[in-house]
Every structure is written in C-alpha cells, then in structure tokens.
Write a structure and sequence with these properties.
Layout lengths: L1 E2 L2 E2 L15 E2 L6 E4 L11 E8 L2 E8 L2 E6 L13 E7 L4 E2 L4 E4 L26 E5 L13 H4 L2 E9 L2 E14 L2 E15 L2 E12 L6 E6 L3 E2 L14 E5 L22 E6 L3
Antiparallel strand pairs: 1-10, 2-9, 3-4, 4-5, 5-6, 6-7, 7-8, 8-10, 11-12, 11-19, 12-13, 13-14, 14-15, 15-16, 15-17, 16-18, 18-19
C-alpha cells in the first residue's frame, strides 16, 4: 500500500495513493509488478523486487522515479510471511512528490482477495467485468407504441463479454423481435465498466432500440454511481450481489419511436445487473 503522495508539478497525484495487488512475473521468481495507473502524471508501473546484493538481502519497490528500499543485511526475509512490512523511502523524482510517502508490503498467500474477472484493474477494461452478466431490464416497465415487441424487452438477459478495438463490453444483440409492415424491430444491450479518470470508474448499460438497419436508433443509458479505481465493481452491490443502474435522463435520446412514447409511459428509472455465474 502506498500512502502520502502529494501533488508536485501536476494536480492528480492523489490517485496513486492506493493498495496495489502485484502479480509474480514468473513462477518462483523474485519480481512482482502491476501495470500503469490511469490518470496520473508520472508513468506508474509499480515493481517489487527481492535481490541479493553481495551478502545483503534487499526489497525494493519502484514506481518510475520513486523508490522505496529496505536492506535486511544477511538475514534473509521470509517473503511469504511479510505482514505490514514498512519499506523506507529512498528516491523522489517526477511530477508527483513522494518524499513523505510510505510503502507497506503484505504477502497474500492466497492470492488476490477478489476474483480477477470482477475487480477493476485501472485501465484494463476487460478486468472490470465477469465473463457473463445477468441484466434485468425490469418487468412491466416497457410499454408498446406500435410494433408490439416491448414486452420482449423486459426480463432478464445474459450478456457475454466480447472484445472490441477500444476495450471490452458485455453485449447481447436480439435481432428481429418482430416485423410489421416490412420493418424489422430489434434491440441490444451493451454493458461496460468505464474509466472516468481521477481514480474513479462507473458501470453503464446502453439499451438500444431500432427499426431496420440505417434507421435512427433510440438509446437509453443507465449508469451506476461512481466507485474508486482498483476497488471491485461489486463494492456497489447490495447484500444479494445486485448492482442497480439508474436512467441518465440528461443523455437519454427521444424516448418515443418504439417503446414508452407517451408521456404517461415513462421509461423504467432503474435496471439491475449481477454476475451471472455468482
């Protein structure tokens, strides 16, 4: 855990104060690392090494130009037993000020404390999502305007994570839920955990309703509250593991066209998502 980093020549250094979960680079190796943190001025790959310098055993933690080091002399440290081990600050170099920052190391014998597929790992979008999400669009909340398929929109759907060039999202696409007067109506759902910068993230689901390819799309976006980069996105979940997303009325497109067109038929204000395999 790194704490006490303050702004130097830039103003977002506080995002570096967090608990880092480092992975061993090779089995039985002496190097552990984690990739860069989003939104900080300094390049911030963090690396822990255990080395033997002559007869001295040394643990070194580096974050670009910032270094913490502890020399154990000839007493070999029991690395797998380390608990709240303080590593002394050595070097402060970069746009952030680590001169008073502390570094505390604890070995995790059982590995990372949360599932690797459900913990937000900074910029790595794919790490934000379980392999499959269950998405409940709400029963009874979708009202037909003309086609008669809106009752098929409501319900629970399972979306599988897929990869796009700009990241990964969970997606379900349902084509031609009905056809009227030569028009094929369909909808899809895209769910993603998004990096907002400054150490925050958010889960959003976009429900798209459409009539034939090339026809203007109707998009309804539901968002979670924000949560801290590095925390599990399931910190937002209730006791049943359910995360509630709220309709973002400020970015919602025209709710008319297909479902819930009348002012007396407002869109569902919330939808719910959870790990389909939990």
């Amino acid at each position: 855990m790194i704490a006490g980093i303050v702004d130097g020549s830039c103003s977002d250094c506080e995002v570096l104060n967090k608990t880092y979960y480092l992975s061993q680079d090779t089995p039985d190796g002496c190097v552990w690392s984690e990739g860069a943190v989003c939104g900080a001025c300094d390049p911030t790959d963090i690396i822990l090494t255990v080395t033997l310098d002559g007869s001295d055993y040394i643990i070194t933690v580096t974050m670009d130009g910032h270094v913490w080091k502890k020399n154990y002399g000839t007493s070999k440290p029991e690395c797998c037993e380390l608990t709240d081990e303080t590593i002394a600050h050595l070097t402060n170099s970069g746009d952030c000020d680590t001169s008073s920052a502390t570094c505390v190391v604890t070995a995790l014998k059982d590995g990372h404390p949360c599932k690797t597929d459900s913990c937000l790992n900074d910029c790595v979008v794919c790490e934000n999502l379980p392999q499959e999400w269950a998405i409940d669009l709400g029963a009874g909340g979708w009202v037909d305007t003309g086609c008669g398929f809106c009752d098929q929109v409501q319900g629970v759907f399972v979306a599988t994570v897929i990869s796009f060039p700009d990241g990964c999202v969970a997606q379900i696409n349902i084509q031609s839920v009905c056809s009227v007067s030569g028009f094929d109506y369909f909808f899809d759902i895209l769910l993603a955990a998004t990096d907002l910068g400054v150490g925050l993230a958010q889960i959003s689901a976009v429900v798209t309703l459409a009539k034939n390819i090339g026809t203007p799309l109707i998009r309804h976006t539901y968002r979670s509250s924000t949560f801290t980069q590095g925390d599990s996105c399931f910190a937002l979940a209730d006791e049943n593991g359910i995360i509630t997303l709220s309709l973002d009325s400020t970015t919602d497109s025209n709710p008319g066209f297909i479902c819930n067109a009348a002012s007396t038929d407002p869109l569902p204000s919330t939808i719910q998502v959870w790990d389909a395999n939990a």
